[in-house]
Design a protein that fits this description.
Layout: H1 3-8, E1 23-29, E2 35-41, H2 43-46, E3 51-55, E4 80-81, E5 87-93, H3 96-101, E6 107-112, H4 119-123, E7 137-145, H5 148-153, E8 157-165, E9 177-182, E10 188-192, H6 197-208, E11 215-219, H7 235-245, E12 249-252, H8 255-261, E13 268-276, E14 282-294, H9 300-309, E15 319-328, H10 343-357
Parallel strand pairs: 1-12, 10-11, 14-15
Antiparallel strand pairs: 1-5, 2-4, 2-6, 3-5, 7-15, 8-13, 9-10, 9-12, 13-14
């Protein structure tokens, strides 16, 4: 139905949008991976040409927490950096070039903390990322049927294998982008390439400390999402910038911003054990699936649950035990990406089916 608009270029994507008196945002991102924020000094940036204002976590008027399953993420880094590229400061200026140049006037002092770079280091608690999750576990789901140990006892062939998958970027053609402005009646409006506007409107109202009827979220045409635009990683920054300046504000991620700052497909390690009769009848499947959720929960709780549910594949098996766990690490956050937690265990179980067939 929208082919004509796309073909002719008439369809307006978020990055195409323009408004009178519109300001632009540049995000100052952390060059540290895990660190305590000791001081943010942006006085020099405020004095630079074209700069309208500078925003930090101190400027959040309401609840500075949001997320999909857990509200574990601040609008801008607050007190602590948890992954490389996490936004700390938002510079709002008349042009994007002015905003980017003003980064030279921002000084952030850090105290480095131990880095949790993989699942094993998360299990060993090399460092704790979130105080309310002292074991670094985001969530665990276990799907169990029958008795797997009895199933293995009745098996004539038993195969055990380890599998792993890497992080994958969505690489949508359209990077994250949006614009915000105030309607004459005081309603804050955020237009962005957003896959979950109803949920994000609720979150924005809490973050802004405004009644929900004064917050409007509009989904612009999405130039590729694949789950990666379900997370509200910049819309609140836009809204706060508009409230602070009383002007329309635009934010467009560069490709580098998108690669560094948006969620990825979960890297996963999997240990599988399968037992069969000599005629090929599957007697039991036992699996341990461990997902690297990165610095914040995003969609990890849901993807972990889905990987447990689908971990044994589409086969009729009497004895199954699949345990799936997501962990916090100092890697880029993991989130929703096509098949939502199913691709990784499917790779493992189907590889096992090939091995068993041979």
């Amino acid at each position: 139905v929208d082919a004509r608009g796309k073909m002719t270029g008439a369809l307006e994507y978020a990055a195409d949008m323009e408004m009178p008196r519109m300001l632009h945002i540049h995000l100052v991102r952390s060059k540290e991976v895990h660190a305590e924020i000791l001081k943010i000094d942006y006085e020099k940036a405020l004095e630079m040409p074209g700069v309208e204002t500078v925003i930090t976590s101190e400027d959040v008027p309401g609840e500075d927490r949001f997320g999909v399953y857990y509200h574990d993420q601040p609008v801008l880094a607050k007190g602590k950096i948890r992954f490389y590229g996490e936004p700390v400061v938002a510079i709002v200026a008349e042009t994007l070039e002015d905003a980017e140049e003003a980064e030279k006037g921002v000084e952030i002092t850090y105290k480095k903390l131990p880095v949790v770079s993989n699942i094993q280091e998360a299990i060993e608690c090399k460092a704790v990322l979130h105080e309310d999750h002292p074991d670094n576990i985001v969530s665990t789901t276990c799907v169990q049927k029958g008795n797997v140990e009895e199933g293995f006892k009745s098996s004539e062939i038993i195969i055990e294998k380890d599998f792993s998958t890497q992080a994958v970027d969505h690489a949508y053609l359209e990077t994250e982008a949006g614009i915000s402005y105030c309607d004459p009646d005081g309603t804050i409006v955020v237009k962005s390439c957003d896959q979950d506007i109803t949920h994000h409107r609720v979150l924005l109202a809490k973050i802004l400390g405004m009644p929900i009827n004064k917050v409007r979220v509009i989904m612009s045409p999405v130039g590729g999402g694949f789950g990666g635009k379900e997370d509200m990683i910049y819309q609140a920054i836009l809204a706060i910038a508009t409230l602070k300046t009383n002007q329309p504000v635009k934010l467009v991620f560069s490709r580098e911003d998108s690669m560094i700052g948006s969620c990825k497909r979960h890297p996963v390690t999997m240990h599988y054990k399968i037992g069969l009769k000599s005629d090929g009848k599957i007697q039991a499947v036992k699996a341990e699936i461990r997902s690297d959720g990165g610095a914040y929960c995003f969609s990890t709780k849901g993807t972990v649950a889905k990987s447990a549910i689908c971990g044994a594949g589409p086969y009729q098996i009497e004895n199954v035990k699949v345990t799936a766990t997501g962990y916090y690490t100092n890697n880029t956050p993991s989130g929703a990406m096509r098949t939502f937690g199913v691709l990784q265990p499917t790779f493992a179980i189907e590889s096992l089916m090939d091995i068993c067939s041979e």
